[in-house]
Amino acid sequence: MNSDAHTGAYSAEEIQSWDQRTSMRPAPYRFAMARPAKGLNVADPLMARVPTSELVCHGKTSPNLPRDPEPDWVDWDLVERGQAVWKEQVARSFAGLGLALLSGFSIARFAEILFVNGYAKSGETAMQRYRATGFYVTDFYRSSLRDPKSKARRGIANVRAMHEWARRRSKKIFDQTKGEGVALCQLDMAEVQLGFSGICMEIIERDFGAGPISQEDAEAMAHCWRLIGYHLGIMDEYNVCRSLEDLRACVDDFMAFTPRRFQTMRPATAELRRTAMEGFGMETGLGTGFWHGLFLTYLHSAQYDLKQLTPEVVVHPGMGIVAHLYIQLFRFDTISAVMGRILLADRDAYEKDPDTAKRKAALRKSLARFHDVFVWRFTGMLYILRHLLLVLGLWRILRRAWRARLSFRQR
């Protein structure tokens, strides 16, 4: 995404005046995101009444958690269509979510909450927690969102309770008297919802070559996440998925401040990004080096100043080419579909045959190590050798031209 396309509504001075390093105040939105921003001091009133002993902690949930009634605006046919499209695009969407998350760590409010709640402890911890999130999302797309007892709805209840748990652990980070609001406020949840919906849809269309999603499918995808967001505790007045038009406007408004987020990142961002890429590398078997290259390639497509924005990410020579080839694979629907089936099968394996799933995970970790220690280093050597040969070839051409010139003069 070209960042320039999203900055026309704000002056450069207005954007530069906002600095996350000195305050946890959110971006000074004035357009589409101004509506969710009004929820800065609003948490989740329903979950606020639940005793801490009843809250979830990474997968263990009390059966006594309260739930909201179904909204009167829900269109179940549209929800099911949205689920079907998201499921069809699951491989592209998960790759997109990984990139959106690495970028989203630049949001100081988001990064500090994750850091306080232990997401940057190690690559292993990151892998386990983001894998659990991925499993929840696959359930959202495959299980009934209409049945309150379904796997999807139980998962939503788990996530909502985990949010409340994290909110209580993070409350000291924010100072309401300084305009910083509360932890995991309605705005924070709306920005996360934006990453899972509108931003992910843009990555699917633009970076992974799916082409324009039809108006009908895009509306269904947005409506699906409107319902998911509602049951996660996002009140309707702050929900960014109330309509496709509203969702796209919110993406544009949010993206206007993304370069500034990168410029004013906190130390927690670098730690979260480092451990997340280690975790992603282990989970995919492709190694940390691959994810460094993929993330930088993604940012390059957004035309950001990479030297200024990502000093903590070091890329082996040649990894840009590898990442570009990987992205090109997603342009083929058949390959994307196969990757999607593998993802869904992996989620099922953890439930039906956890021992086998754990052995496969251990194998992927070993494969990731092999890629980082041997494959990507060898790729870098080949890349450097190729450039040396090109330089040598150019030198020979220039030398021959110089000799030909001297010979011509002597005549």
UniProtKB/TrEMBL annotation:
It comes from the Eukaryota. Keywords: Membrane, Transmembrane, Transmembrane helix. This is Uncharacterized protein. The keyword Membrane applies. The lineage of its organism: Eukaryota, Sar, Stramenopiles, Bigyra, Labyrinthulomycetes. The chain crosses the membrane at residues 374-395.
